[in-house]
Hints:
The structure holds two protein chains of two kinds. Chain A is mainly alpha-helical.
Amino acid sequence: MKPAERSHIGDIDPRALLLVTVVYLVAMLSVPLQRTDMIIWFAAYPIISAPLAHIAYERLFRNSLFVLPLLVFIGIFNPIYDRTPAFALFGITINSGWISFISIIIRGLLATQALLLLIRVSGFNEMCEALHRLGCPGAIATQLLMVYRYLSVLLEEALTMQHARQARSYGKNSFKASLWGPFVGQLLLRTIERSRRINMAMKARGFNGTLSTSPNMHWTTADTVYCLVWIPVFFSLRFIDVSALLLTLFAYC
Amino acid sequence: MNTPALEFKDVCFSYPGGHEVLRHVSFSIQPGEKVALVGLNGSGKSTLLLHTNGLLLADTGTVSVNGKVIGRKNVEECRKIVGMVFQNADDQLFMPTVETDVAFGPRNMGLKEEEVNSRVDEALRITGCSSFRDKAPFHLSGGQKKMASIATVLSMKPNILVFDEPTSSLDFAAEAQLIGIIDRLPHTILMSTHDMDLARRLCTRAILMDHGAIAYDGPIDTLPYPLISTL
């Protein structure tokens, strides 16, 4: 994905964006599992930031849905094993397991949206550079860049192998279970061989394990303001029960 | 006689497992010379090329660049002198954009950013890649990828250029463009190729590899016909 062009937050330093995203993730993910009411408020960040980055929130939400199967897989055992009654709704008892299941789904979607927003606004390369400049070991930042770059190459390899199989399957499109082993094995071997060649190409150009970054990053007052606006908001959402506070305010009024 | 730009002296090399790939290889290339390395698949051409900038080190014998024997201690220095363009451009281009990929080598050399930018601009201009400098490598055509991979090496300003099958998987237009670019380069060039037309157009000398040994080393025009017919 390319960095968001000329958006309100497109000029924010990737380090500021990364810092805000990390604080957001830590604050949101550290909320107790049963406190779904607290988690909901964290949706404000992607909902407000997406339009500022000239991204429709609806699109961001749709893009984040690709992790839904994984989230369902992670959370689906909670309703089965945690049958402690939490509350009753229209005469139906809701278990704690269902609440934690919903909580996992919401957290996962919001975390994915925050990460997608970060990559969309700053660009993946810049995000890796920001990681490196914020103290992340060069090897990890480089690894992330490589994974991003070679994911498409790996998919191409897999697609080529799939086409080769199809070309000789004479209309039988089913992929037999016995073929999966050799297919994945071949893909692994090809990947190892390719990574060996890439490593040689990198070494031939003086790579010594550390990412040499471009110095085109300048921290400005706007970056400080961006951090000072969002980070206290996340801490407040984490430590103040906004839902309870609003209920109290309504009751008082 | 000048110090050879590149010199192999009685080089032998085996991969782990004992398969002997290079057998007593000796030759030298003078500065500015353009040499084609030809031979059948598996004859040891690519392995030989990997010795030119220390990606592989000889079991016995020596490889020298500008008179300096390549060893573990000076391998980084040699890689600044010998630029290698790999056969598959996808192996060579690993950064998110063409521009950052071309800047990868100069930055690793520890150059100042102004110098890096100037080298990147020049390399992109020579190879005709300026118009797609901001594009991701995996969005480029095969020919564009090849030009970009040459730019990644030219930006390091090496004295010697080593090409592994430069025209493989290129269409005739991209091949013609590539030949035009290589022909204008003043560098010492060693290229492995199966394409005898390309070899004749760009090189004056040929080295024929056969089962890891040199079977012929001389003018490309007198490369014996029976040997060519085996390619």
